[in-house]
């Protein structure tokens, strides 16, 4: 059995010191990190981007199948994704944790290992946070601060008629990964010796458990000299994010079913589960891909970009938001979003 | 009975729109607030301060005696206090909420009313956040961003031997307010018609339920041309905060029992509860006063400042951290801090 050190042996200040002692600041903009009343940053002439996420056990993650190291990694990355979606670069995070006695010091070390790994890969500093007791489940709140040049910040509101709609990577995989994990968890119930069958499904599992943010896409756009007219990250599903852009840009859209990028593992899994593949890709969520619009003149440039697909175009608002199916029908896009409070 | 609108009638996006629609940005540094992947701020040549706090129901607050409007006010103010403790000015907050079905839309409106009131009084913008379901209690995570001129940021680490130790306001009142509320809650149990007896105890209740951050002290210091050598806000108790300054400044301290500012309501309540008054003032916590050190040459200036008291001086680290009692004995200062995880 692995080592278990009770949190009580360290106490509050001891625990924070223990978890944060290995942190080394690497960004020139991080003037002062953990250990004072506030972190101090210096962004000089760049603009500051701030985003925050609250993750609660049982709602956003299930520790039955989400290892704490992966959870730490994912919790950081989903915040980086929001900064990239502004065409910015994440630079710092603060991390607040609510934890109960059932967690050991080693558990929290694993969580911090995941956080730190993500921060090392994406070049981000952990500059502050708060650790406190929780009466029930684990609560994780991360705030990410990033920078962008003033003229290069991309909002959701800048899409124009005739702009091309582009998306990175592929969609629906993380959602199918979650369905698979849930199925295995149900099967596992009551069985002592159970080995879940994950072979050939590694990609969709990784998309669910250890997603990446599209730093590479933001870098490619910069290299190509493209500043998108609008951008958002796909966290609630393609459909929902398209509607955000349309609403805030006062535009409409047409996307083409045949252009929506879907991995074969996602398709195979949807078939096994007897689920509609396109619905999965439109509404699955947790893809953390970038959805953006560019002027028509950028067509050749974006077509050449690795991992980017043109899936449709921006229209006048009066034309609504539709997906054109393979057989030429038009289906209206609807936001599914999150509705945990309805259940 | 007051109106109760179920959150489910609005849905996620509807709820966020509803709660944030009245928000108007007032600071020139707030470029873009709620409604995109991240908020956009522009601090130009000033440094950026970031602090964050996670408040969990049952640990940090009890809705039995803490009205939601007060909770919203307090949740904002305790973060402002951290920014003032860096000698900065709070400018923006992001607010993440985890809520269960037992809360109505009206409940959340009350919470936001409290937040907004605090933001109006202190000149702060709400620029982002996240609202999600919670399986159990309420979770509140607030991140506050503020600014300071580069040369005027005050850390915990700058105290020097012979510096004067100053504290604002008075100590121990919030803690005694909490004791009173807890007593009345115990008495209330099982009783249908119960009117708690709070007359003559308004000050300690207000200190607990609706604390203020010491904006005025930071302004007075600026007017007097004083940049403290070290500063911290008193959230975990005077004793604990003095030890933070000593540890980070590599110094020691002597404070004088007779100099510790205590309100008469605090003293009366401690007497009723048969509690040691000085222990209460040293370890009570949640005072949100400012504890700071200034060079000896500032003696006359700080002595004249309203609401500031000199309580001791900084010594060489080898002399340790002690309180000199009224009868001339020396008692070593110990950090009590938070130890909810020990229970």
From TrEMBL, chains A, B:
Stored SUPFAM superfamilies: PurM C-terminal domain-like, PurM N-terminal domain-like
Chain positions recorded as Mg(2+) 5 binding sites: 236
Keyword line: ATP-binding, Kinase, Magnesium, Metal-binding, Nucleotide-binding, Thiamine biosynthesis, Transferase
Binding positions (Mg(2+) 1): 52-53, 130
Pathway noted in the entry: Cofactor biosynthesis; thiamine diphosphate biosynthesis; thiamine diphosphate from thiamine phosphate: step 1/1
Residues binding Mg(2+) 3: 37, 82, 233
Domain of life: Bacteria
Primary role: Catalyzes the ATP-dependent phosphorylation of thiamine-monophosphate (TMP) to form thiamine-pyrophosphate (TPP), the active form of vitamin B1.
Note: Reaction mechanism of ThiL seems to utilize a direct, inline transfer of the gamma-phosphate of ATP to TMP rather than a phosphorylated enzyme intermediate.
Family of the protein in this entry: Belongs to the thiamine-monophosphate kinase family.
HAMAP family in the record: TMP_kinase
UniProt-recorded name of the protein: Thiamine-monophosphate kinase
Species of the source: Macellibacteroides fermentans
Lineage: Bacteria, Pseudomonadati, Bacteroidota, Bacteroidia, Bacteroidales
Gene expressing this chain: thiL
